[in-house]
Amino acid sequence: MSAAVLQKNEGYTYINKVNEDALLSPGVMSKVHGIRIDKKRLWSKRRWSTIAFKRRRLLLKKRKQKREYSLQLREGQTYENNIESAAEVDIESIPGKLDPKEGEVVEFDIETTGLGRDSDLVQLSASDGDSEFNVYIQPNQPISKNATAISGITYSFEKNTVYYNGKEVESKSLRSSLVKFIEYLQRHDNPILVGHNIMSYDIPVLSNK
């Protein structure tokens, strides 16, 4: 334990100092090796403290989380602790055909940062035929070029600003946007959400958020 503390506080050349205090020869190879390692540690410490390195580390962390989340979506929670004793099991059932007469139809659409189900929302729109809902959302991940080509939406992390076709638009946080969407739906009696390709993409993205 003492050796580990010395190595942390004094560097690898602490062995030479111990030998000198004990009136022993430090050894040329020990000195050279200790100096080389201390220089490498100092270089690494400076590199780790740079903004570029920290950004790269956050990017890799997000990519890892994406991969894990993607696997979880495909396989389900098969590796969770004590999953065999879970009291509740999430079973998705396919509902029967809905009759529009039983509720109010609300068409909706989303725009996202990418094509994956773990993408962030950047726009959420809806309409019931009489009233409309639209909100731009501040994402937590970069918008891919393909997504921008489809939606025309870009985002500046430095200015925390959303742009539509190059023009700045008012945007809100994800939580605030979803709360506003729920409030819009609550104005309708038994709202029935409809849209293009929503079961395989839009609904899973909304559910994830």
Structural notes for this entry:
The chain is of the alpha/beta class and 209 residues long. It has two domains: 2-48; 103-208, 2-Layer Sandwich (Nucleotidyltransferase, domain 5). Helices cover 44% and strands 19% of the residues. The chain is built from seven helices and eight strands. Strands 7-3-2-1-8 form a five-stranded mixed β-sheet. A hairpin with a 4-residue loop joins strand 2 (121-127) and strand 3 (132-137). The two termini are 47 Å apart. The model is unreliable at 75-91 (pLDDT under 50).
General shape: rod-shaped
- Could you spell the SSE succession in H and E letters? HHHHEEEHEEEEHEH
Task: Please tell me the CATH architecture of the largest domain by its name.
Answer: 2-Layer Sandwich
Number of strand segments:
8
Please state the structural category. Answer: alpha/beta
Largest sheet: 5 strands, mixed
CATH topology of the largest domain: Nucleotidyltransferase, domain 5
How far is it from the N-terminal to the C-terminal residue, by CA?
47 Å
Percent in helix: 40-55%
Q: Enumerate the strands of the largest sheet in spatial order, edge to edge or round the barrel.
A: 7-3-2-1-8
Mean residue pLDDT: 79
List low-pLDDT spans: 75-91
Radius of gyration: 28 Å
CATH C-level class of the largest domain is Alpha Beta
